[in-house]
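Why does residue order matter? Because the sequence determines the fold. Keep that principle in mind as you read this record.
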Amino acid sequence: MKSHPPLTVLTRARYDRLAPRYDLMMGLLERLGMARLRQLLWSRVEGTVLEVGVGTGANLPFYPNGSRVVAIDLSPRMLDKAREKVKKARLPVGLGLMDTQALGFKEGSFDVAVGSWVFCSVPDPLLGLREVKRALRPGGRLLLLEHVRLPGLPGRLMDLLNPLAVRLGGENINRNTEENVRSAGFQMDEARPLLGGLVRLIQARS
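Structure:
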């Protein structure tokens, strides 16, 4: 059996623990606007799709008709929740237990890769983004919703609060995912600020 780096093991364990109450924890945020942002993200999706970090399946209601979607997650218990929703909705979705940092797909397998609030929790975000790029066909699109570090004093406060955020929810709140996307070799098409710049809608090409 393939071994995982310690941070990856820790991340998996953290989300396994959160899985039973994750939907309850996120419920208010979904009603306050996260669901609307998910819908905006998925309105841009077509073709053969990889969703990284499917979690409990919050994006499932927004999957576009006619697209072939494979959705993966690092946490077995989060995937169990997603499987329940897929079965209930009778969606033609392939779900798999997989690490974004070590994708088990051939090069050029997908037209689009999508993630929402995922690369804040991937232990090595650059490695994960490079793996996603490898799995995309040349010119394939990356579509992300990510919260990012704010400039100035708010950013410094986010740095201070980040250890607590990771402990409570598993998410780094101070990452510069926009820059990480570029560093992974993607060509940036759009980095649209939302919610006062706290969130970015990122569209890039491999």
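The mean pLDDT is 93.
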